[in-house]
Amino acid sequence: MESLQLPPIDYGALLPMLILFGAACLGVVAEVVTPQRARNAVQLGLALVAVVAALAAVVWQRGTRTVTIGGAVAVDGPTLFLQGSILVLGGVSLLLIGERSIEKGGAFVSQAAVTVGSQKDLQQAGGRPGATEVYPLTVFALGGMLLFVAANDLLTMFVALEVFSLPLYLLCALARRRRLLSQEAALKYFLLGSYASAFFLFGVAFVYGYAGGIQLEVVHEAVANPQRSEVLLYVGLAMVAIGLLFKAALAPFHVWTPDVYQGAPTPITAFMAACTKVAAFGALLRILYVAFEGVRWSFQPILGTIAVLTMFIGAVLAVTQTDLKRLLAYSSIANAGYLLVGVLALNEEGLSGTMFYLVAYGFSVLAAFAIISLVRDADGEATHLSRWAGIGRKSPLLAGVFTFILLTFAGIPLTSGFTSKFAVFGAAVEGGQTWLVIFGVITSMLLAFPYLRVVVLMWLSEPGESAPTVSIPGFLTSAVLGIGVIVTVALGVVPAPLIDLTREASEFVR
Amino acid sequence: MKDFPFLSILTALPLVGAAVVAFIPRTKAELAKIVALGWSLAVLVLSAVMWGAFTIGGDRFQFRESYAWIPSWDARLTFAADGIALVMLLLIAILFPVVILASWHDVDQSTRSAPAYFALLLAFEFTMIGVFAAADVFLFYVFFEIMLIPMYFIIGSFGSGQKQYAAVKFFLYSLVGGLFMLASVIGLWALGGHTFDFAELVKGTAQIDQNTARWLFLGFFVAFAIKAPFFPFHTWLPDSGGAAPAGAAALLVGVMDKVGTFGILRYCLSLFPEASRWFAPAAMVLAVIGIIYAALLAVGQNDLKRLVSYTSIAHFGFIGIGIFAFTTQAGTGAVLYMVNHGLATGLLFIVVGMFVARRGSALVSDFGGAGKLMPVLAGVLFFAGLASLALPGTAPFVSEFLVLIGTFSTHKGYAVVATLGIVLAAAYVLWMIQRTTQGTLNPALTEVPAMSKDITLREKAVVAPLILLLLVLGFYPKPVTDVINPAVQATMQDVGANDPVPAVEAGGKVGG
């Protein structure tokens, strides 16, 4: 009997993920051993330290190009850049998650399983300290995302997908207010996410059948020298893609997005909008560029159609929204379409442009949701558009920041929204996908309308009768807002350093 | 002197001013106004010095500065001015202090913050100077888009009437145009050699195939035609002009709309010469329709500010035929028209604003015989109207005449139809003046105390420089045409147009 050989493991390359998973396990222990009063501070501190340490490890590993643990994990430029982005955005999200001063007890419920509307539920809505499990859950999700963008074989990718999805399903259900919406969101996300995972796994089986292996370079070689029926390949690719398109919220697999974004606690929505997007597109980039690059002519038109569909659905439905969180959800769908345009350029500019876009969008969207968490009334956040009328009169600073973020989303120059759109559109023209750019420009016109409507509402409308109050942001939320706005300005005015970084990082290892 | 970084300082100066004014507390409105006025005068002085340093007959582009910005796209902060940009920069520098002085009391009655208004005006000046000083297509696009934001808030927050509707319409129209241009800018970059430098692109676009170049031209042209605006993209202007405060409206038509015609001259013609020639007939037709159609609508207007907006659209038709006639004479006329129109329509808007501020209404029917109460102000309105209809002796006459004879030498038919526009201009201006200041006194006017207050000292200081310039340039336009002419010649060379040989004494040789 052949003895099982342990493959060589490059622990340095795995260090960021090891740190996060280790810290998440520690967090579970800390949940038990620390006293209730100190728990929040300890958990938040632990999570932040872990993220910073992992980030340091990523920086330390810069320049690494290696495939390790038997070909399961690839650490290269894109991996490290995307991991770094996820960590930075995740760290900022943790600040939002940790905010306790806006609402008594924080944005999270202490026991998710309590029946909605029961006496106990009302008690915990009244200000009992929220669950601190959210921190280890978030760190687990972050760890899974790091693995997801580094996965070099399809099964590792699937495992990573589950590792980061499961905590997210749970986190969605933990909103303190509007419990039913929150639970509905979690259930929807879980059910649809499970279907998507099933498709992904089924697709992996087909690809295995075609290529005789699940490692991306094996698939690449099989695509280059086809030996078996191409039906297996295309069915497999389609199903794998469905799993990823679902996570990236691309049409027609986007339907969960508005409900989940609306129902989930706002810090978690921000976390998903920023980090999940990076992870999903990171994996999509790797699969398309590394494994299936050889059949680009087959998938480019189909994914291109999906990109156009996504941009249109996101833009058109954003126009009709009356709830800010849903509006931002549709805007995030449209942005996923723009990102896919960058991916489909299938050249180095496309890769670097997409990575730039992910970072730029992540920071803006974090700031946007941070603002939404500040405008409140007795029932929690006042997300209905009509409640925001005339808010610029009372809180010019908040309205000014939100206006700036909306102009960023609309792609006005000197904001990161413009530079990132320019990066992906320029790459797509280079890659011969001019038609996608034309549709991208047309949908940008449509999408400007809902953003502008909010700006008009905030500045030019008269305030309503029962206007919501604007909370004074705590230190953590202020930090998120500050970071978001500064990065958005910086990437709009002096994008060169980050563009250079993405360019240096834009080579996959195979 | 030539090495002094004029253009970058000129661009940055108002931005700094805007930041300073924005931080003045609301309660010190008077201080904010004085700082804003002082700042815009400093810009004026600097641009006057720059005018002096410009070498007539020297390089086409002078005061060139270039700084690295986004190296991987080769987008640079490049500033340079040719004669056309130079006269526009000086026009901007003159109009802003005038408008700031004219808007002195605009915000006093409203609940909005006065420092914010003047900060927005200075921010708008920053974007205006930037857009004319940029010599890098990316930088130009950036300014082209961000100029919307200060104007949007000026109209939306400080306007009157349907200001929200007007502000949103303004923003969306311009943004749509801008996005068409964005598509073309990206295409230009990808196909024209991965650079945004204007001079490089002029060489680079020669390699782009004919069909693609026409599409790229169209992207730029639509953006500029909306901005100018040309028929049929004009519907936003009467709304914006009607809703904006009078001073801002003067800037809107006097300066901002010129970006459209300037953009056509600088970018459409020079970058896509073949496409420009191919589209020229269509552009001429649109321009001529604009002249007649807008003039007819202006005749029928009952709202003074909307009326002036429509006259402006008609004037842009003249500029349009001047550009697309492809003769140096018509081109020089068109650029001179841009300057004179800025002065004349700016003056008209400001004076109309004085009437509207006194009466509290912009409707023509709310006036009548106002000249009996305010003879001097009515006289100024009369002068502004005459300048606007291009009476000989005022500056617009020179430019209109140049455009028409320049066009006549190549496109007789268009020139003849456009001349009808002059007749209509007389109709809308004179009829408007008759209904507002002449005739029997509207008894309702005597009940408005402000209507008996003739022109104040501040208002005299506002209108005097404009009246003076209109007269001086009417009799002696040479200093301006000398600056414009070489730049227009260079543009006509880019587009490959040859001036027709003067056919006056050619006799039998013509028509052979």
TrEMBL record, chain A:
It is found in: Cell membrane; Endomembrane system; Membrane. It is an enzyme of class 7 (translocase). GO terms for cellular component: endomembrane system; plasma membrane. One of its GO terms (biological process) is ATP synthesis coupled electron transport. Keywords: Cell membrane, Membrane, NAD, Quinone, Translocase, Transmembrane, Transmembrane helix, Transport. The keyword Iron does not apply. Pfam families: Proton_antipo_M. It catalyses: a quinone + NADH + 5 H(+)(in) = a quinol + NAD(+) + 4 H(+)(out). The keyword Lipid metabolism does not apply. One of its GO terms (molecular function) is NADH dehydrogenase (quinone) (non-electrogenic) activity. The chain crosses the membrane at residues 12-34, 41-60, 80-98, 134-151, 187-211, 231-256, 268-292, 298-320, 327-346, 358-375, 396-415, 435-460, 472-494. InterPro entries: NADH-Q_OxRdtase_suN/2, ND/Mrp_TM. Residues 151-446 form the NADH:quinone oxidoreductase/Mrp antiporter transmembrane domain. It is a multi-pass membrane protein. Its EC number is 7.1.1.-. NDH-1 shuttles electrons from NADH, via FMN and iron-sulfur (Fe-S) centers, to quinones in the respiratory chain. The immediate electron acceptor for the enzyme in this species is believed to be a menaquinone. Couples the redox reaction to proton translocation (for every two electrons transferred, four hydrogen ions are translocated across the cytoplasmic membrane), and thus conserves the redox energy in a proton gradient. Belongs to the complex I subunit 2 family. NDH-1 is composed of 14 different subunits. Subunits NuoA, H, J, K, L, M, N constitute the membrane sector of the complex. This is NADH-quinone oxidoreductase subunit N.
From TrEMBL, chain B:
This is NADH-quinone oxidoreductase subunit M. The chain crosses the membrane at residues 6-24, 36-57, 77-102, 114-132, 138-158, 170-192, 212-231, 243-266, 278-300, 307-328, 334-357, 369-393, 413-433. The keyword Cell membrane does not apply. One of its GO terms (cellular component) is endomembrane system. Keywords: Membrane, Transmembrane, Transmembrane helix. One of its GO terms (biological process) is ATP synthesis coupled electron transport. InterPro entries: NADH_Q_OxRdtase_chainM/4 (IPR010227), NADH_UbQ_OxRdtase (IPR003918), ND/Mrp_TM (IPR001750). It holds the Pfam family Proton_antipo_M. The keyword Isomerase does not apply. It is a multi-pass membrane protein. Belongs to the complex I subunit 4 family. GO terms for molecular function: NADH dehydrogenase (ubiquinone) activity; NADH dehydrogenase activity; ubiquinone binding. Residues 134-423 form the NADH:quinone oxidoreductase/Mrp antiporter transmembrane domain. It is found in: Endomembrane system; Membrane.
